[in-house]
Amino acid sequence: MPLHHIADLTAFPHPTCVCLGMFDGVHLGHRELIRATVAQAQAQNLVPCAFTFDLPPAAVLHPPRKLRVLTDICRKSEIMHELGLAHVFYAHFDPQIASLPYDVFFRDILLDKLCAKHIVVGFHYRFGKDAKGDTDKLKALCTEHGVSLTVIPPVTLPDGTLISSTLIRNALESGDTAAASQLLGRPNL
Q1: Which of 60, 63, 82, 101 is the least buried, fewest Cβ under 10 Å from its Cβ?
Q2: What is the pTM of this model?
């Protein structure tokens, strides 16, 4: 299975199209990012991949808060591979990675390690220390370094509700597995 810890990577040998996010659940919104990544990779002759974390950042940044992880890193990687990604790179989310300034994260991980030539993120993507990096800062960094960028708009239910991992967790906590499955786009976790 093409799952790689970022610490084990010096530099990926081919240019990549990378989607970024936690991807907990690999729900319908995440699938839009993955679809765009695969399409851009094919159009630009890049390797389609993702960069993610093994733990939700909130679980580390707000320690008393316990978050239910919808999909562990191995299952997440399997689903992403089934959806067309060639590789999934991840880091253990810990205080060290949480302290990386957004521009250092961009340079050290996306450019130097992943050889990113195109990046795909959701509309509300935040990155770097204190989540100071946003899509505007990412766009500026991409422009500066000759990397193209796709920002995916919100993916919602017909009633306008944003599809999110939190919504899925709430459905599971209330026992509504049918709603959770609908949001995930598959029958089970």
Answers
A1: 63
A2: 0.93
Q: What is the pLDDT of residues 70-101, one digit of tens each?
A: 899 999 999 999 999 999 999 998 888 989 99
3-state secondary structure the chain: CCEEEHHHCCCCCCCEEEEECCCCCCCHHHHHHHHHHHHHHHHHCCEEEEEEECCCHHHHHCCCCCCCCCCCHHHHHHHHHHCCCCEEEEECCCHHHHCCCHHHHHHHHHHHHCCEEEEEEECCCCECHHHCECHHHHHHHHHHHCCEEEEECCCECCCCCECCHHHHHHHHHCCCHHHHHHHHCCCCC
C-alpha R_g of the chain: 16
